[in-house]
Amino acid sequence: MQSIDEVELLGVDWGTTNLRVMRIGNDGRMLESRHDPRGASKVKPGEFGTVLRDVMGDWADPDLPVLVCGMAGGRNGWLETEYRECPVSLETLAPVKIAGEELDISIVPGVSLHIDGVLVDVMRGEETQVMGLQDSEDGALIVTPGTHSKWISFENESIVSFRTFLTGDLFAAIRAETLLGHEMGDAGSDLEAFETGVRRALDDNALTANLFSVRTYRLSGQISESSTADYLSGLLVGAEVAAQRIHQQSPIVVLGTNLLCSLYARALRIAGSPNVKTLDATNAAATGLWRIRQAML
Predict the structure, then answer these.
(1) pLDDT grade, residue 52 (50/70/90)?
(2) Could you tell me which of 121, 131, 125 has the C-alpha nearest to residue 154?
(3) In this model, does residue 182 exceed pLDDT 90?
(4) Sheet hosting strand 83-85, strand order edge to edge
(5) Which of 30, 2, 4 is nearest to 12 (CA)?
């Protein structure tokens, strides 16, 4: 275990469904972390401070700054922070301090993309992960799989543009609320079914028609009932990859959890992307928070 003297920052990654508090050292490394299922969507207005103090527990220290990223800064979060418009660098992401707290707590703002003066996309949380990447990833296309997958152009140490896909949200909704999801299990056990879905999506861009093949493939026995979730996942991830084929030859970094990263990397390679790397988003978020803090000193 690391010495408490090495802790420089308490980092908080407050997603929609989960909360993670991290002790971050003076070199940007995550030393320890604590997890809690009380994501921003499960916390009532006015209770964010109470929840955070509960999870921090004995880590709380008036002399130790706390930097928060993610949906705690959203409209229904702890304190709504404005979106900073692309291009966005470390210096652009100056945190907003929360008044009236005994601890020194600030929230990282989100990022927005405008085209011809019209707001077309937003993000909260992924910008911090991207800022935690190594210099060697500058110039790459960063993919952050999840509920709302992001494809982020990162150039000259700045986020210059991005695009959001509701892949994870759509997968969950189809599985839980439609006929296609009837008796569908979890994804992750049948890579062959996943690849079949990816290839179909790459060959045919009619996503809603392809989705109905979940039913017809199961009725015909082409896909077993236990493999339909993997086939559906392949269809959705494949459609996402197909929409971004313009970047096929670019260096691509997939930043997220191990399972999702491996599936996206597999789909990208099936699509013909020659330069794909996967990285753990956990450490990237910690380093990103530390770098944002350092940029403000």
Answers:
(1) very high
(2) 131
(3) no
(4) 83-85, 110-115, 118-123
(5) 30
Rounded Cα distance, 242 and 151, in Å: 12
Task: Kindly state the DSSP code that residue 88 receives in the 8-state scheme.
Answer: B
**Residue 177 corresponds to which tokens in the numbers above?**
């609320």
Q: Which of 33-37, 77-81, 120-124, 220-224 has the lowest mean pLDDT?
A: 220-224
pLDDT level of residue 1 (50, 70, 90 thresholds): very low
Structure tokens at 118: 């019209």
pTM: predicted TM-score of the whole model, two decimal places:
0.91
The first and second tokens of residue 94, run together, are 């100056």
d(CA 253, CA 73): 26
Give the residues across from 95 on adjacent strands. none
Query: What domains can be seen in the chain, in order of their start residue?
Result: 4-135+284-296 (3.30.420.300), 167-280 (3.30.420.310)
**Per-residue pLDDT at 4 exceeds 60:** no
Say what the pLDDT of residue 184 is. 85
Chain segment 169-178, per-residue pLDDT in tens: 999 999 999 9
Instruction: Return the CA Rg of the chain.
Output: 20
Candidates 110, 109, 89, 86; CA nearest to 97 is: 109
Tell me how far apart the alpha carbons of residues 146 and 13 are, in angstroms, rounded to a whole number. Answer: 15
Calculate the CA 123 to chain-centre distance: 9
Encoded tokens for 82: 């404005």
Which structure tokens are listed for 280? 């753990």
Helix count (H) and strand count (E) of the chain? 8, 14
From CA 187, how far away is CA 193, in angstroms rounded? 10
Kindly state the helix (H) or strand (E) to which residue 59 belongs, with its residue range. Answer: none
141-144, strands of its sheet edge to edge = 158-165, 149-155, 141-144, 252-256, 276-280
Helices (H), the chain: 48-56, 126-131, 167-177, 191-203, 207-220, 228-243, 258-270, 281-296
User: What is the 8-class DSSP label of residue 246?
Assistant: G
